[in-house]
Design brief:
heterotrimer; A alpha/beta; B mainly alpha; C mainly alpha; A: four-stranded antiparallel beta sheet; 10 helices; C: 3 domains; 19 helices; globular
Chain lengths: 259, 301, 447
């Protein structure tokens, strides 16, 4: 199986402060991969680096490469990256609050050259989210959090991506809505779109993804098939709040990192 | 200050004042449109709007008075040149200043205004020029009162160009992208819209529109002179009625301010025109800061 | 006394600090102040070179003294609260004071320099610099420190003028009474017009205050027509009160000493501006001033810190307006004539240009900015007339005013784009570099 996205030994730093250290992540074609990690683990930096907006935060890639479909994208501008087939759902949704739902979705297709196909994709997105058509002409800023997140996912899909990156899809949403959204991600994934879910909520991410990585202070500390990780005691202790002594597990991982 | 009862209820005079006010208001609307467009999408308070308007009028002097250009050709050329000027301002001044404080950028626009004023006076001298006469003069009798042709044509040209602009802004893909950048620039960059291009386009359109307004103003006023720049300040009350965020609201605001001002000037005396216009601004800001058509997320305490 | 405790608690305790009793440290300043008296009693030729020499020697002595007595501990947080804690700051302040005191005496015999004196006309510019430094400093208190962009400050210049005209001319009171009344009226109306600031912020406040400006302007026009007719007001020169006649250099004629020359005005303006700006600097360093900064940075958090935001805003408005009003009164008496068109929005924008070009944060910025604003056209004028190549170009002499205007506009944009912290920032950078070099050379010498 060829890889859609392969990140190799990536290191990123903000000025003197390293944010990612030798991170290697692979997303196979049509795969569903999740990246877990607590606050400050470097998840958002990872997303920024992939989507080419790192320079906005004065970050710098110090080593490593990012290949998408065999092509190096680490030096491209965000516009070309979106055009190349990577769309992302940004953290905190980031809709255009003054535009209507319809207009928000159309903006998602900003990078597309085949303007004729946009309406077609739009109806596909509306099929995927049956809640959205009645809200079409409402201002996006007035929707509920769950509806906004759907618009954000729909907007990303409008670019007809082959890889969808979701940054903190579960942020600030009720568990039921999060579950629905992940079921939707499954559906999108079944249609052949690779999904990279960056998540704090490990429980749900591991249930839906096929492969997972755990980031800790900028490094990949664990990786493996999701089903295996779900059984892993450390993961349960750290990310799922299950049994065990959390501090002990944490220091164990820290020791691993420091070595 | 005394109100002349005889003219106050005179139908003919009032109709004349209202039509004149609508034409004047149309010019204000155009200025306010350019102002709101820039303010809304780039968060720059452009205090040089008046100078751009004046520059448009003086371009009118150069084309229509000195070269006898055809009205339509001249207007289009002036609008295009002004739009180009907007691009220069964006790439030369506004882009390097990204990230600086609000007031610093406001003052940069004042610096631009100063330069424009100086250059205009170098080229055309400080004295008044007569008004532009590329449009048919004379009056037409409607319902028993005489209405100037100029007023009607100014209204029509402005209405047509504003309608064209609004169609572009709300119906086309580029217009949509400009609105997206105005709404949330980071998200716009994230979906692959180039914010820089949208800003440049916004500046070009805003300044181009101001140039068009200047040509109209040159036909409307009795004389073209450097003091025309003060009219740019009227963009503020007009935009305030629109709540500073609504492009359509600013146009209606411009018309309202124009009519009220003309009525106040006609009935109370010309010195009341400015205080009345800015009194409206003050009252709207104090009692309804969102304007009559504004969106809710204004910066308030 | 308090200084002693500060140095005692200072942790670094550098051994090179020399302690000099406070009474002794004041001495050079007293000598400097008294120098005109001393020099005046020796009969002297105003254009003799030795006088300039004496001035410079005094400058150097005072500067060196201030430098050597200062605590060299810029990191001490308690010293950071003091007005002039670093050696360079003290030296500079001392030199500035000396220079300001010495200038008229170096240039002329007394308060009445010969009118054909070559630089006498330049004092018109110096006067404007001083007066606008006051106005811009006050504007900066509001716009820079408290973050309230008020465009109504031309209206307060107007109010100061109105008070000056009414109290001084209609009621026939002394000019010296006008100033405090102008301050009080400015403060009261400033607090009144500050009320919109409780509801509005940023752009919206700015536009609302433009509204205030035009409404007050109408009031001024009506006032002028009612009391003085269409010709405008003409102020008479203020008379120095007789209890100040003992001051050396003041030669009353018929028991009167009218402030009617550029030199005499320079003294008056300088005194009032210095008092006001020192007051401003001290307000900024006080609890009130820190509340202003908190209101500027985040007024909601400021509320949570227990700062009464509404009060802080109104106090800032009142203080700033009072000072602008005083400067308006001074400016009107200095200009002698005021008419319907004397006040417009551009004056506020001029203040804005002064503080932003000079540097937003600090009274220094206001001073640098007004020097930039007034001295630059003067310099251009000199270049136009004296420099061989430029004076030959007909274009420049024909469009003198316009060229100045254009250059000023371009410079404003260039400074803003190239140096966002203004001329004061540039100055600070240069000074820091010099200081570092000085410290390095000292460290090198010590080894």
């Amino acid at each position: 199986m060829s890889n859609a996205l392969s990140i190799d030994e990536l290191s990123v730093s903000y000025g003197p402060i390293p944010a990612l250290k030798n991170v290697s992540i692979e997303v196979p074609n049509g795969g569903f991969v999740s990246v877990l990690g607590a606050n400050g683990a470097g998840k958002t930096t990872l997303v920024r680096t992939i989507s080419g907006v790192l320079y906005l935060q004065k970050g710098k890639r110090t080593s490593g490469s990012i290949k998408f479909g065999g092509e190096d994208i680490s030096k491209l501008k965000s516009r070309s990256i979106v055009r190349g087939g990577i769309a992302h759902v940004p953290e905190g949704r980031m809709l255009f609050p003054h535009l209507t739902v319809d207009e928000n979705l159309r903006c998602g297709a900003a990078s597309r050259r085949d303007t004729s196909g946009i309406s077609e994709t739009l109806s596909e997105v509306f099929d995927l989210f049956p809640q959205l058509p009645p809200l079409q002409h409402q201002q996006a800023g007035l929707l509920s959090g769950g509806e906004q997140q759907m618009v954000a996912v729909g907007r990303a899909l409008m670019a007809k991506p082959s890889l969808l990156i979701c940054d903190e899809l579960s942020l600030g949403l009720a568990p039921l809505i999060v579950r629905d959204l992940f079921l939707l991600l499954d559906r999108i994934n079944q249609e052949g779109v690779a999904v990279l879910a960056i998540e704090q909520n490990a429980r749900i991410a591991l249930r839906h993804s096929k492969y997972a990585y755990a980031l800790e202070v900028g490094e990949v500390v664990l990786e493996g098939p999701s089903a295996e990780l779900r059984e892993n005691q450390e993961v349960q202790d750290l990310y799922m709040g299950g049994g065990g002594d959390i501090r002990e597990a944490y220091t164990a991982i820290r020791r691993e990192v420091n070595r | 200050m005394e109100i002349l009862a005889s003219t106050f209820f005179d139908f003919g005079i009032n109709v004349q004042l209202v039509v004149g006010g609508l034409a004047l208001g149309a010019i204000y609307a155009v200025v306010a449109l350019g102002f709101v467009l820039v303010e809304k999408s780039t968060a720059v308070l452009n205090l040089a709007v008046g100078e751009f308007l004046m520059l448009g009028s003086y371009f009118g002097v150069a084309f229509f008075m000195e070269r006898q250009t055809n009205f339509f050709v001249g207007t289009i050329v002036i609008t295009a040149v002004m739009a180009l000027f907007g691009l220069v301002i964006h790439y030369g001044i506004m882009r390097p200043m990204v990230g600086q404080g609000f007031f610093a950028i406001v003052l940069a626009t004042i610096g631009i205004a100063t330069v424009i004023r100086a250059v205009v006076q170098m080229r055309f001298g400080p004295l008044e020029k007569g008004n532009l006469t590329a449009l048919p003069t004379g009056t037409i009798e409607v319902a028993g009162t005489n209405i100037r042709w100029v007023d009607i044509i100014v209204l029509l040209v402005v209405a047509a160009s504003v309608a064209g602009f609004l169609a572009f802004y709300s119906l086309t893909r580029t217009g949509l992208h400009m609105r997206a950048v105005a709404s949330n620039i980071e998200a716009a960059a994230g979906v692959g819209i180039d914010p820089d291009r949208a800003y440049a386009l916004t500046w070009a359109m805003a300044i181009g529109i101001a140039g068009l307004g200047g040509v109209m103003l040159g036909h409307f006023t009795p004389s073209v002179n450097p003091a025309l720049a003060a009219i740019g300040l009227r963009a503020f009350p007009a935009a305030a009625i629109g709540g500073f965020t609504s492009v359509g609201g600013s146009i209606i605001g411009g018309l309202i301010v124009g009519v009220i001002e003309q009525l106040a000037g006609g009935h109370l005396g010309t010195k009341w025109r400015e205080p009345v216009a800015f009194g409206i601004l003050f009252l709207v800001l104090i009692f309804k800061p969102t304007g009559l058509f504004g969106q809710k997320d204004l910066e308030r305490v | 006394m308090s200084e002693m405790t500060i140095t005692d608690t200072s942790t670094s305790g550098s051994s090179s600090v020399k302690r000099v009793p406070a009474s002794l440290r004041v001495l050079p300043f007293l000598v400097a102040l008294a120098s005109p008296l001393i020099l005046d009693n020796i009969s002297w030729n105003p254009f003799a070179g030795w006088k300039i020499l004496v001035g410079f020697i005094l400058l150097i002595v005072v500067g060196k003294f201030a430098w050597s007595t200062a605590e060299r501990d810029p990191d001490n947080p308690r010293l950071a609260l003091k007005l002039w804690h670093r050696p360079d700051q003290r030296a500079l302040t001392a030199m500035t004071c000396m220079g300001l005191v010495a200038i008229p005496f170096i240039l002329g015999t007394d308060f009445d320099p010969p009118m054909d004196f070559p630089w006498a006309s330049w004092f018109r510019i110096v006067n404007y610099i001083v007066l606008f430094a006051l106005g811009a400093g006050a504007f900066n208190l509001l716009a820079g420190y408290t973050g309230q962009l008020s465009m109504a400050h031309a209206a307060f210049l107007m109010i100061g003028t109105m008070v000056g005209a009414h109290v001084g001319l209609i009621w026939g009171q002394s000019f010296w009474l006008c100033l405090p009344i102008a301050a009080v009226a400015g403060a009261a109306l400033g607090a009144l017009f500050g009320i919109p600031a409780l509801r509005l912020r940023g752009l919206y406040l700015m536009l609302a205050t433009i509204g205030v400006h035009f409404i007050v302007l109408l009031g001024w026009k009506e006032y002028l027509v009612h009391y003085f007719g269409f010709g405008g007001v003409r102020f008479n020169a203020p008379n120095l009160p007789s209890w100040l006649h003992w001051v050396p250099g003041i030669n009353p004629e018929d028991g009167e000493f009218l402030i009617n020359t550029q030199f005499r005005w320079f003294w008056l303006n300088l005194t009032i501006t210095t008092i006001c700006l020192l007051f401003l600097v001290n307000v900024i360093r006080s609890r009130e001033g820190r509340a202003f900064a908190a209101v500027r940075d985040r007024d909601i958090s400021a509320t949570l810190l227990g700062i009464n935001v509404a009060r802080s805003k109104l106090v800032a408005f009142a203080l700033s307006s009072a000072m602008v009003s005083v400067s308006g009164c001074l400016l009107s008496y200095y200009n002698r004539a005021r008419s319907e068109d004397s006040f417009n929005l551009e004056q506020v924008l001029d203040y804005g240009i002064i503080i932003v070009v000079g540097g937003f944060m600090g009274i220094q910025g206001a001073i640098f900015g007004s020097v930039f604003f007034f001295a630059l056209p003067m310099y251009f004028e000199w270049m136009r007339e004296e420099l061989p190549f430029i004076s030959d170009i007909d274009f420049f002499s024909r469009y003198a005013g316009e060229v100045d205007l254009a250059i000023r506009g371009i410079l404003v944009v260039v400074v803003l784009v190239w140096r966002p912290d203004g001329l004061a920032g540039l100055w600070q950078a240069a000074k820091n570099r010099l200081l570092r070099q000085f410290q390095n050379s000292q460290a090198g010498a010590a080894q």
